[in-house]
């Protein structure tokens, strides 16, 4: 019985499944373990060396040195910058949205409280101090959202863009 189990376990190692591997685009900084990956079917936004503007497209396939977009093949060596905003967390944008939304919600709750619950006069419903504070909060939230760091992966000596295989 022990021999049968041993033979079954050994057969798994002898008869490996050497199936097909899938290729993916990997963006990695040489000094870090963290990396970003793009697989076929994902949307990618990139800029090539000779272009002024970013190109947005869906990856339909990846070969050894090119990215395929429908009928277009682009060598990975010609890509200068890749937009990685969708691959990372945008904490500052979320914070700006939270500040703006909180200020707007405070104004709405105060307005509803004074007008419907306390049935105050229409002149007393809009308080100038509350309006100024909420406007400042909305402005700060919009300011934080607008000036949040845009996240791009730029090719240089440290940042590398290459194609890897999943085994």
Report on this model:
By secondary structure, this protein is an alpha+beta fold. The chain folds into 2 domains: about 25-85 and about 150-165; about 90-145. The chain has 4 helices and 10 strands; from the N terminus they run H-E-E-E-E-E-E-E-E-H-H-H-E-E. It has helices at about 1-15, 90-115, 120-125, 130-145, and strands at about 20-30, 35-40, 45-50, 55-60, 60, 65-70, 70-75, 80-85, 150-155, 160-165. The strands form 3 sheets. A 4-stranded antiparallel sheet has the order 4-3-8-9, with no helix packed on it. A 3-stranded antiparallel sheet has the order 2-1-10, with no helix packed on it. It is elongated and about 90 Å long.
Topology of this protein?
Layout lengths: L1 H13 L7 E8 L5 E4 L4 E6 L6 E4 L2 E2 L3 E4 L2 E4 L3 E5 L7 H27 L4 H4 L2 H19 L5 E3 L4 E8 L1
Antiparallel strand pairs: 1-2, 1-10, 3-4, 3-8, 5-6, 6-7, 8-9
Structure in a nutshell:
This protein has helices at 2-14, 91-117, 122-125, 128-146; strands at residues 22-29, 35-38, 43-48, 55-58, 61-62, 66-69, 72-75, 79-83, 152-154, 159-166.
Largest sheet: 4 strands, antiparallel
Question: How would you name the oligomeric state of the polypeptide chains in this document?
Answer: single chain
Q: What Rg do the Cα atoms give?
A: 27 Å
> Which percent bin holds the helix content?
25-40%
Given as residue ranges, the uncertain stretches (5+ residues, pLDDT < 50) are none
Q: Can you give the mean pLDDT? A: 81
Total strands: the figure is 10
């Amino acid at each position: 019985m022990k021999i049968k189990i041993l033979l079954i376990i050994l057969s798994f190692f002898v008869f490996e499944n050497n199936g097909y591997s899938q290729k993916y685009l990997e963006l990695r900084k040489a000094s870090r373990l963290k990396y970003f990956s793009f697989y076929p079917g994902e949307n990618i936004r990139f800029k090539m060396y000779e272009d002024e503007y970013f190109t947005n497209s869906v990856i339909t396939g990846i070969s050894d040195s090119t990215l395929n977009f429908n009928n277009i093949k682009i060598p990975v060596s010609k890509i200068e910058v890749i937009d990685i905003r969708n691959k990372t967390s945008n904490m500052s944008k979320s914070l700006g949205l939270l500040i703006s939304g909180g200020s707007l919600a405070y104004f709405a709750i105060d307005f509803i409280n004074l007008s419907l619950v306390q049935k105050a006069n229409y002149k007393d419903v809009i308080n100038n101090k509350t309006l100024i504070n909420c406007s400042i909060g909305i402005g700060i939230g919009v300011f934080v959202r607008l000036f949040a760091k845009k996240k791009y992966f730029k090719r240089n000596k440290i940042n590398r863009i290459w194609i890897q295989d999943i085994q």
